[in-house]
Amino acid sequence: MEIARLQKEEACGSIYGQMISDVTSLLRWAKRAGAQPQRRTVLDLEADSLHRYRERLCLIQYADAEGVEIIDPLAIKDMGPFCDWLRGAEVWMHGADYDMRLLRQAYGMLPVMILDTQIAARLLGHEQFGLAALVEHFYGIKLSKKNQKANWGVRPIPEAMQAYAQEDVAYMLDMAERMVAQLRAMGRYEWFLESCAVSLERGRQRHVADEKEAWRIRGCGRLNRRGLAALRALWRWREAEAARLDRPVFMVCSNQDLLWRCAQLQDFRRPAPPSGNSGRISRYRRAVRSFQLMDEEEYPLLPRRAVPPQTPRGFEKQLERWLARRDALAVALHLDASLIASRAQAEMLAADEGAGLEALMCWQRELLTDHETAQRAISLTCQS
């Protein structure tokens, strides 16, 4: 226990900051954050998506060489100082996909660069790359998962939850330094930077589906037009019920249950109403009736499906060749093969080599096509 404590203090310091919950404190924080060198700050976010209909960004965890701070965006009316810093920042995060969506939703922006410790861990060959697994790997410390699904919208935030939130970022700067050193030693730091840049660009381009089509949930491709009409009606019913309760939609009716009901309705069966009070059941039945009274011309159209291109002659042999090359490199480099090229990317290479290569990141393309690059990467892996 004493060794673990010393490792913890070495990695993240022994002093945590107080909750920043007013504009004056936020301005002081912004001055401190703005003075930090680029790529020497850490962010993590907490939301209440498991507890509300419309999720909110409830907590911002920040760390730099001076220590850890937590910011309460629900208490601060003007988050301008944070946004001003964010738009020019290059920060470390872990598994940033969801957090990118939260930042865009809350503030309409992303940092200049996000360096993702999860991407770094995968490029180093870690098979377990969750934050808790990495902290245990580097420091021998097990992070508590007790508050992982907590309601971060409650105020005041209990001390145990504040401690959990701060530990999420406390180790990351030191851990990032260690991983960067390893990536450089293995000749993979440029791979990491390019992978992070591509991930960030995808986050910028990702947009919320058009509200008119948001009801087309995953799995609805198995429904015909009548089933889609039922889905649209029941999806709207579910949204209204969730909004009425201010609870996540899955607490009203899961996607799986929704699709099952629509499959029943498209076949002219009558599934029993979902559980709930008399008001909810009555509104459900009205939604079903509204669908049943529709003319067929009003049913939603089936989605257009792209016509698959004809498989070129020799496709299977080319695919086998690319997969064999990828898999051999993965073994030699101690990497997950999908990092070098996914199955879909390998199929693109087999179907149209030029277009397939163009779609890869530079480091992937060089590994797969340049013998000297591959041998150098393998040599550095053996030396590490």
Topology:
Elements: H1 2-12, E1 16-20, H2 23-34, E2 42-47, E3 57-64, E4 67-71, H3 80-86, E5 90-93, H4 97-107, E6 113-116, H5 117-123, H6 131-139, H7 159-170, H8 172-185, H9 189-205, H10 225-245, H11 255-266, H12 278-292, H13 315-333, H14 337-340, H15 343-351, H16 353-359, H17 362-369, H18 371-383
Parallel strand pairs: 1-4, 5-6
Antiparallel strand pairs: 2-3, 3-4
Concise summary:
The protein has 3 domains: 204 residues, Ribonuclease H-like superfamily/Ribonuclease H (Nucleotidyltransferase, domain 5); 82 residues, no CATH class; 69 residues, no CATH class. Helices cover 54% and strands 8% of the residues. It is built from 18 helices and 6 strands.
